[in-house]
Each structure stands twice: as structure tokens, then as C-alpha cells.
What we know:
This protein has 240 residues and is an alpha/beta fold. It contains seven helices and 13 strands. It has helices at 35-45, 59-68, 84-91, 119-126, 194-202, 221-232, 234-239; strands at 4-8, 29-30, 33-34, 50-55, 73-78, 101-105, 109-111, 134-140, 154-156, 162-164, 170-178, 206-210, 214-216. Strand 2 and strand 3 form a beta hairpin. It starts with a strand and ends with a helix.
Amino acid sequence: MPTQAVILAAGFGKRMRPLTEHCPKPLLEVDGRTMLDRIFDALVEADVRDVIVNTHYLAEQVEDCCRRRKDLNIRTSYETEILETGGGVKKVLQHIDKNPFYVLNGDVIWQDFPGHAPALQGLAGTWNPEKMDLLLMVYPREKLPEGSGLQGDYEIDDAGRLQHKIGGPYVFAGPRIVSPALFDNTPEGAFSFLDLFHKAQDAGRLYGFIHQGAWHHAGTPEDLAAINAIYRNPRKMAAT
Length: 240
């Protein structure tokens, strides 16, 4: 079970404007609770205690949220210039031990359903360091609401190995487990985590875990309003 996590919370959330003009996207609320706090809750449930959150846009607000949590050991990593998703994680590797760790987007929203392993525990139970460098949580595209705008990213074989395919049956859902060794020979400064997806795939070491609960894409204010409507209606939540 990974005991450390990195949360990516430095972005500007431009597509979520005007909601993000004065509030960073991870601090927008779903059913009265910030998306970032919901991620923290899931990490506590998964027995993770050491967390690093990268910051840039409206960093003070994100740092204040982190300081309020007393159930996690949270370190923040301020970026004077955005290092993108890959560079932001590489910057904090000095604070990560040599074991695999979770990486999560600060704006990811998912629900765990009874009878299925919670998402992060499911990822951890699927992780196999003998054959994996990167394990992605994916979600069936057919379960997305009509008009989501997401076209699918991957197909998955019987062994769980992922292959990138535009329009594929699964979308990347955000949470992942990564081996620190995957960052070997990566550039300094800004680069995308997608480069690591391709690196792991080329080596045959990119795998997927299919989330069996619900997953919600919060790209726009309209998306967020729809998600809040689902959370306020237990029947809609159960049907998602």
C-alpha cells in the first residue's frame, strides 16, 4: 500500500471561470465540501499520511486549506513558474521515499460504491511492481453522461495493460500509482506527466484499474452544477 501521495493543485482552472477568478479550482465545493478536502478524506481512508501538494495560482488559499487538516502530514511545494504535471511531481521527489506513491489531480471527483473496493485501495491492490511502472485509474466512457465531451483515451487488454487510443472505451480518471524510477532521465523544469504515460506504455509497463464506482468530470461551471445536483439527489447518485 502506498503511504505517500502528491496532489497537483497549481493550475489556473481557466475553463472553470468565472468561479476560479478568486478561488482555486481544487477549493470549489461539491455538496458543501471542497474537492481538495474530498481527496484528503480518501487518502486518510487509504491509510496515507504523508502528502505533498504543489501550488502556484492563489497558493495562499490552497496552503490555508492544507494547514487546517490535522489528520495528514501535508507539505506544500510552491512553484514560482508552473512546472506542469510532470515537472511539478519531479520537483518534490526529494521528499518521496523510493517506494511507489499516489499522484492525484486536485480537481478529481469520484464516488466509491458499496460492494466494490474504494478507488485508492483498488489501485493499491492492483499494483504489481514486478510488471508495472505506472497504474492509472480509468473509467468506462459508456458510463459518462451524454455531452460530456470526453472521447476516451485507452483500451485495455485481458492482462490489464493499457494502450493509448483516441476514442477508446476508457478515459483516464486522474488517480494513479507511479514508481519513482519512472522519472529517471526526465528533463529538468516543466514537462507533462503524459510523457511518462508514453514512456511506461513503450516499455509495456502501463496498466489500468477500472473504477467500479462513479466518476465525474468537472471541467466547466455547468459540469460542477450538474455534479452538485447528483450529490444532492441520492437516487441520481445511485443511478450514476
